[in-house]
Write a structure and sequence with these properties.
heterodimer; A: mainly beta; five-stranded antiparallel β-sheet; 11 strands; globular; B: mainly beta; four-stranded antiparallel β-sheet
Chain lengths: ~110, ~110
């Protein structure tokens, strides 16, 4: 079992603030790092799939970076909006054809 | 947009009963997964399935669990004799290839009483 850690566990920010969270993972046995956004009562929705060290991906106000050598990824949200409120999950796709999920960071954006 | 569908959305069953959770993955996807999340805990891997056979399973996936792709579209998870601790949200997911984004169903909430 590979241990994927996310921090912080929860976060409250004001509308308009920028924020970031961390996903750390064992750097061996690495195929890809996925970020998912999970709103209550919905299914997780893929944000990014990153495979290369130094990868940076962006979707609107959300971006992510990956450091496979040291085993971490950051997710950034610029100018948070209330609709960004969700749980952000990272998942390591590694040997064994499976995803290893972190516990998620719960983001609440206060209007 | 293609989506993974799961039925039922809620299932209440008595301890010791068999349940079948159903999933329809995205049609051109080749890899299928079952995960579960017990309330307040991390999402846990149960099993992955490729080419009509299990490719990986976790310790949770014991002899009480089985998966099938009976007709080339449905992907089912069967729990033969449910226990109280099987109560959880069960999520099905599929990927087109091994390393592409996963599409998740909305989950089946299983409550064992």
């Amino acid at each position: 079992i590979l241990n994927v850690e996310q921090s912080p566990q929860s976060l409250h920010v004001q509308e308009g603030d920028s924020t970031n969270f961390t996903c750390s993972f064992p750097s061996s046995n690495f195929y890809a790092l996925h970020w998912y956004r999970w709103e209550t009562a919905k299914s997780p929705e893929a944000l990014f799939v990153m495979t290369l060290n130094g990868d940076e991906k962006k979707k609107g106000r959300i971006s992510a970076t990956l450091n496979t050598k040291e085993g971490y990824s950051y997710l950034y949200i610029k100018g948070s909006q209330p609709e960004d409120s969700a749980t952000y999950l990272c998942a390591l796709y590694a040997t064994g054809n499976q995803f290893y999920f972190g516990t998620g960071t719960s983001l609440t954006v206060i209007p | 947009e293609p989506e993974v569908t799961q039925t039922p959305s809620h299932q209440v069953t008595q301890m010791g009963q068999e349940v079948i959770l159903r999933c329809v993955p995205i049609s051109n996807h080749l890899y299928f997964y079952w995960y579960r999340q017990i309330l307040g805990q991390k999402v846990e891997f149960l099993v992955s399935f490729y080419n009509n056979e299990i490719s990986e399973k976790s310790e949770i996936f014991d002899d009480q669990f089985s998966v099938e792709r009976p007709d080339g579209s449905n992907f089912t998870l069967k729990i033969r004799s449910t226990k109280l601790e099987d109560s959880a949200m069960y999520f099905c997911a599929s990927t087109r290839t091994m390393n592409t984004e996963a599409f998740f169903g909305q989950g089946t909430r299983l409550t064992v009483v």
